[in-house]
Amino acid sequence: MTVASTARDASGGPGEEERQRADVKKERREWRQYVGFAPAAVLFGVFFIAPLCLIVVYSFWITKNYELVPAFTKNNYATIITTSTYVRTFGKTVLMAFLATVAALALAFPFCYWLVRYVPKRLQRMGLLLVVLPFWTSYLLRVYAWVAILGDHGAINSLLKALGLTHQPIRLFLYDNPGVFIVLVYLYFPFAALTLYASLERFDWRLLHAAVDLGATPMRAIANTLFPQMRLAMVTAGIFVFIPILGEYLAPAAIGGTNGVMMGNLVANFFSGFLLPLGSAASVLIALVILIVLIIFRRSLDTKDIYV
Amino acid sequence: MSGITEIKLDRRSFVRGALMLGAASPLLLSACASGSDSSSGGGSGSGGDVNWLTWSDHYSTDQLAKVASSTKITGRPKLFSDNADAFLQIKQTGPQFDMVSADALWVKKYMESGLIEPFDLASISSSSELYSMAKNFDFLNDPKGALGYPFSWSTVQIYYDPNKIKTPPTSWESLTDPMYKGLIVAENIPTDLMAIAGIATGSKSPYAQTPEQVSSASNFLGALKPNMVKLASQNNEIVTMMASGEAAIGISNLGTDVRVKDAGGPELKSAYPPEGTIGFIDSEMISAKGANKPLVKPFLDAMQKSEWIVANFTTNWRPLFNETAAKALTNDPKTADNAKRLFMDNPEKALAMTLKGPAQDQQAYTEAFNRVFGA
Questions:
Q1: pLDDT above 60: residue B39
Q2: Which residues lie below 8 Å from residue B30, measured CB to CB, with a gap of 6+?
Q3: Which of A110-114, B157-161, B230-234 has the lowest mean pLDDT?
Q4: What is the largest CA-CA distance in chain A?
Q5: How many CB pairs under 8 A join A and B?
Q6: Which of A106, A161, B4, B146 pairs with A91 at a CA distance of 20 to 30 A?
Q7: What is the crossing angle of helices B211-224 and B362-373, to 10°?
Q8: CA nearest to B6 within chain A
Q9: How far apart are CA B26 and CA B346, in angstroms?
Q10: 3-state DSSP call for residue B228?
Q11: Contact B87 A88 (CB under 8 A)
């Protein structure tokens, strides 16, 4: 049966039938176009939205005699917000994340600048490989490697001893906040470097030359031509570094000792002590900080912008 | 291909779809979890895996490999540090764990919550090697049967390196002296540290402190905090830190001195606090919902044979309840001294300490602890 004969059989005439068929085809096409996104939607929904929903729900519940009781209460939030230790730890976590982000960017920018401008293209890949090399080992190993580096019998103390500068091991940074800061910068430097490199690689360096030709000092040329174009990449890199640091648990636990505690450690204690609602409330507050950061910098999240 | 390029899925639609999936997935996951109850495999005769929530000193990899080759049952341990943490995991994971380890009074808590299954201890032939008093612990027995297979015990005391500590600590209270600044390491178990602080401040029921006692205990921990270099995630981290000299005082189990020496560390001395102390009597329990729980008894039988208990003692150096192993150890000149010194032949000592258990008000304990050890 041809399309024409089918059209003749239809009560609405050939034109109507054609339109209906076209509509059905269009609907089917529109439906099918979503199928490609199904894996991403499943991943996003099941592994991100669902746990987040559970945490939000738990944060309004209570625990009674090692049982979770679904009784709606805002007390968990009130406890976190009104307890000076928790507020202090929360503030310290945000500050630590901010400082480590600034430091990671401050180190990553000159490194990427040097890599893009002064290293031959074929060797740039080698440089990038060195940046991502630590990812080939476990995160846990990378953190514990710093215990070995900063520890009493670690690389730094061994070197100082070998040089005759010390006789007894000196505790440099380990089991305190500076140690946590150093390790966080080390851990998240690659995130910043890769993002900035992607942007710098596409920068039109003739703009810099033009600025210098027009009388700008090299620093002024960088400040007035390069930085404005790098701003979005900087923000994106900052977000990539800042957000995971807010939830850090292992680095402060392994390196920070009793002085280097961050919010993630308290949350872990809440969870291991069966205080899921309090731990969830603290986690939701951390997520809120992340949300605020994302809202403030939402325009920078368009990833195509980081490529200038 | 044109279909892909013509996609007009906007961010709003994507997020809406993901949200719907996210909201539906907890239901789906719980349905899958309950469904897996019935689909669990593994019979006692066929071999398989025993998923085991435990501490690192309850097994060795060599032991697991040999037990697997002789019984076709492979132990798959997952570690925890705090009893409350293990309790939570068993409560939330359902059939995923077949066996779980717990300290003394926690066992009853598991039973009250319907998380473990009583069993006939005599049906595990290795149990004939146990001290008879260990088979009769109140907290490990129930009219329905045995609740746990008694494994090991230890008090928690103070160990110190005499080369670095010129004025030895003599009590819990003495540990707050500023001369020990940054020298102490203890395990990060909030409930137990609060109990120790309770004992230090005069509480007679360290796991059931009143709000005033919790406050005093919290003040004690506040005074102790500057002297603590780190809260270790597992007991073996205490050994590592004391062996490397990063900590000079450890709040730890019996035998820590031998383990530190074995790890190349200094000769330690111990101090038993006159205020009293806490301690554990741990045991292995059968998870009520374990998918492979029929395998637990043959697995336990193989794991608890005296030869393995001897090996466990000479690795971890804290007493165990296997009498046959105790005899072998005390008769061997190489191990006799340590076996006697560390009470391998004197299990009655285990009943002199305050047994670890769940806190009466867990929220108050954890919160008080976090308030001290936060920033």
A1: no
A2: none
A3: B230-234
A4: 102
A5: 160
A6: A106
A7: 30
A8: A33
A9: 51
A10: strand
A11: no
Kindly give the residue spans of alpha helices, DSSP state H, lying in chain A. Answer: 3-9, 13-35, 38-44, 50-58, 75-82, 84-118, 121-132, 139-150, 155-162, 177-200, 206-213, 218-221, 227-246, 250-255, 263-272, 276-296
Coil/strand/helix, residue B272: coil
Residue carrying structure tokens 């490989």: A129
Average pLDDT over residues A3-8: 46
Contact A270 B366 (CB under 8 A): yes
Of the candidates B218, B367, B217, the one whose C-alpha atom is nearest the C-alpha of residue A269 is B367
Residues of B in contact with A258 (CB under 8 A): 225, 228-231, 373
Note whether B20 contacts A45, CB cutoff 8 Å. yes
**pLDDT tens-digit series, residues B59-89:** 999 999 999 999 999 999 999 878 988 999 9
Q: Which two tokens stand for residue A21?
A: 């068929």
**Which residues 6+ apart lie within 8 Å of A257 measured at CB?**
A174, A175, A176, A179, B228, B229, B230, B231
* Residue contact A63–B228, C-beta within 8 A: no
Chain center to CA of A286? 13
The label of the residue with tokens 């090991």 reads B152
The per-residue pLDDT for B333 is 97
d(CA B72, CA B49): 8
Query: CA B362 → CA A83, B234, B297, B328, B366, distances in Å?
Result: 18, 21, 32, 41, 6
Per-residue pLDDT tens digits for B93-111: 889 999 999 998 999 999 9
User: Are the CB atoms for B368 and A79 separated by under 8 Å?
Assistant: no
Residue A191 to residues A100, A133, A169, B181: CA-CA distances in angstroms?
A: 12, 12, 33, 38
* Cα separation, B353 vs B209, whole angstroms: 17
Are the C-beta atoms of A232 and A202 separated by less than 8 Å?
A: no
Q: How confident is the model at residue B15 (pLDDT cuts 50, 70, 90)?
A: low
Beta bridge mates, B287: B116
Q: Is B18–A270 a contact, with Cβ atoms under 8 angstroms apart?
A: no
Q: Is residue A306 a contact partner of residue A232, using CB atoms and an 8 Å limit?
A: yes
User: What residue of B is the nearest CA neighbor of A96?
Assistant: B375
| Residues paired with residue B130 on neighbouring β-strands, in sequence order | B322
Residue-wise pLDDT for B260-274, tens only, equals 999 999 999 999 999
pLDDT exceeds 70 at position A120 = yes
pTM of the model: 0.81
